[in-house]
Amino acid sequence: MSLVDPRAIAELQAQVRAGADTVDRSALDAIGEVDDSVVTVGAGVSCGAVEELAAPWLFASDRPDSTVADWIGCGCGDLLWDLLGPTRAQVLGVRAVLKDGSLVRFGGRVVKNVAGYDLTRAFVGAGNRLGFVVEATLRLRPAPRGWHAAISRDTPWHEARAAPGSAVWNGDTVLFLRAGESAPAGYQACDPDTARRALRDAWGQVRTVCALDETGGRVPQPGDVFLAGVNRIGTRAESVERTGPLWDRLEAALSGTAKR
Amino acid sequence: MSDWRDATRACVHCGLCLPVCPTYIELGEEADSPRGRIQLLEALLTDDTQSALGPADVAPHIDRCIGCLACETACPSGVAYGDLLEEGRRRLGPPKKWTRWFLKYLLPRTHLVRALAAGGRMLGKVPRAREAGAWPAPPPKPRARIALHLGCVTPALYPHLAHDAALVLTQLGYAVEAPTTQRCCGALLRHAGLPDESERAAIDRLGREYDMVVSTAAGCSVTDGITDVTKLILDEIASGGRALAGARISPAQKVVWDAPCHLQHAQDIHVGGLLENIDGIELQELPGADRCCGAGGLYMAVSADLARDVRASKLDAIEQSGADIVATANPGCMFWLWRGLRERGLSIEVRHPVSLIAEALRVHQTAR
Amino acid sequence: MPAGRVRTDAATRFVHECDALMLFRESPLAVVYAESTAEVADAMRVLAELNLPVVARGAGTGLAGGARPCCDGVVLELSKMDSILDLDVEGFSMRVEAGVVNAAVSAAAAPHGLFFAPDPSSQIASTIGGNIATGAGGPHCLRYGTTTDHVRAVTLVDVCGVVHEITDESLLSLVIGSEGTLGIVTEAVLGLLPIPEATATLLLDFPTMEEACACVTEVLSAGLVPAALEILDQRAVAAVEESLFAAGFPRDAAAVLLAEVDGTAAEAEEAARFFEERWSARRSRTEDERAKWWRGRKGAFGAMGRIGEECYVMDGVVPRGKMAEAIRRVHAAAEQRGLPCVNVFHAGDGNLHPLLGYSRDQTDAVAAAGREIAAICVELGGTLTGEHGIGVEKREFMPLLFDEASLAAMERVRHAFDPKRRLNPGKLLPGPKVCAEAIRRKDAERVVG
Hints:
The structure holds three protein chains of three kinds. Chain A is of the alpha+beta class. Chain A contains nine helices and eleven strands.
């Protein structure tokens, strides 16, 4: 059962077996049909294309021009985190070519799945270090029944982050975005595109990965986007540094370089 | 009693009994949880020569069970744990040798029990006796004749309790007598695996002579044929009766209710609301009121260390509640809590709800 | 280790032969009660020297046999590790030991307006360690996600007894749901969420199961994400109503749907109205009634003691649109073998829980039905388990779901963490029966002496 062209995958496998560190996945451009709020797409499809295809269901990434493969490798999530969850919660299954050239499939197309190791989520945010994703099954969420935005000049960030939804703080102003039919007090109904564009612009400034208030977490800086309600500053790092003995074991195991 | 096999068969191992079991809470060990004990008892009782378990393996864990039956209340499958436990204890015999002597020889001799209690009272190991009011005259047209079952240790520890119960029950319209021919209810014997048919027969006989046999001890009223005094008061309140109208405690007291296991789990009687109906009682919630205090009849003597550990969190809760009085409806629990509170140097009183109501009625009657 | 931690007495070993899956039993060589991460590390070092297999156990409420010991192996009991180590209200997190009971986390967080979202039906008994091992879900994970979405860090003792603090999300994802095959999780930092301002619980009944399932799809398509959407079929309702958890569910309906909506007061009200207007749902009037409905739902598995002599609870997931079809086929699979079948399930996630009643002479029939039901779920595009785990129950079904290359990759991961396969052997991945290995038996005999 393959959505993307098996020949394209075979070619990619050959490249990987030959020792390629990077691969071109633009040929993996197949798009499946949305079925029961789930869609399977080739890893070379752009996030923007998935977003269009998903309607009326909701799919969101902060970077519509990026491919699904890069979006998964980055694992950076979206401003609508509160609605969608982090990237790893949006990826239900992957097919991937491992570093030894083998083609594997982890996860599936249902929203709850604990069969075997959750290697699907392990791929999220791991760059290409565990292998090359060739196909992904994505979870879509019901589109909200409305959008509301509020702008506040007096809300300090630590209060703002306790609110549900997403929020951007630029030093003195907080922009809140909420999804839902009825307007919470102080919120105005808004055009979702306008509100999200504003958030997205600010989001683009964030470069670090950090959860608020955890040991080692940094002091919020002007321009931070924080995902209110989930209490996190969003991640925007291109690749997360992963080190340590356990990570080495995982990487070696999947790349086939581990001793048996 | 149902077949013990039904109990083991009904258990699906879901584990929902674990968090309510006082010994599992204390020890965190499967073999001392209801689910573990059910498995052990099944292995013990099944005539299976292949079973690797003998009575000596099973006994310590069964002996450690307080018999509070909180697991029965928690069990979604309706496992009749109490029946299984009694069957197991019958097979295993009483936990310690002296318990047989205590139950068979000492308890039936109420004068000896009383003498022991009097001695203990002089040493400060037994609560001071409260003044017992006069035995009330029966109402002109009693709704029923009650034989008040005094029990074995209650008259020794709490001699006033029978009078208090008689006062309250008379107020409710019953004619109350305390027949001198009565014997022990046999509950302690049954719990120790020594069921005694003659005790059973004595209760039946009393039941034929009177309309009802009533006890102030939750541990006794679990016996078939005996009604708990609190049930009659609750029925009166539920039926909208006015018999207790005007009863008032003065000065007002902060009271917490600690539910005896043998009322709430074994008989499904919930007393808290009863106290709310008495003026002057500020009923406060006691966290963990539905948990066993560790008394368990003879348990507090047989497994004293574990009983103390179980009691500790109860005493903490009582202490933190800031209550003047802790009310509970079983003499064993009353005694065990009293001892614990005094050991901590606390002066919080321990009262039976019937005594509180009797006191409230006396205040009311004096005021009139 | 301190004295008394290692138990080899017959009674303790006997009660550790199985967890809540009674179909498979195995006697452990010993039970070790550890009371801290350091003691777990000590125990793991000793076990490594002795080359003995080990399985961690909390409350033993697992339904896939994940905590069933390997014969001649050791059960590492973590139930006494039940301390809450730190509550960080500002950071919405709590650090707990693995033996802390799920419900105790929310109870401790509640005074600060916070809660722990994963709420398996066993939550009053099951431990965080077990929740992490299985990747436990629960009714409310429809909106909030499962355990894997709410764990920020774990302390993992590896097979050699080395302690690792894991915050890396890839590794966290790997460890959560790994059923104790990669290491022993002894502590965890859990993420907490603010308690929603308002919650409304609704009861719907349907003349057919198809209509109940269609309702779920309609609700989600309408843009609502309820906190929970649970369905009980008629026999499940009957069992619950006869138990101590009688909730007042209508007994004449083919399916009862319990829906919970939450959020701000306006959001909850709006969502509740949607149910009321579209399906004349009944809204709980009091907190008591709401609690009673949930007790009825969560006590349903236990109440199945009333269905048959023994009870087998399955766990499978299908795409939501295939639920009604799956249930029809599951019923047929059970009935053709003469087994009563009841369904209580997390409908919003397509997570079915067929419960099969059986007597002790029907174990072959129940195993065959189990295999067929697993195959049905996979065939319909679903999976073998949504929240109970693979355990010993479904390891041989794994090839239904994964091809050889994918299983081999998982096998390599396991091998990288546990080269001698001593961590919960005989679980999760298909493979040789470890218990038959003579070498291990010899090791065991050497230890007992």
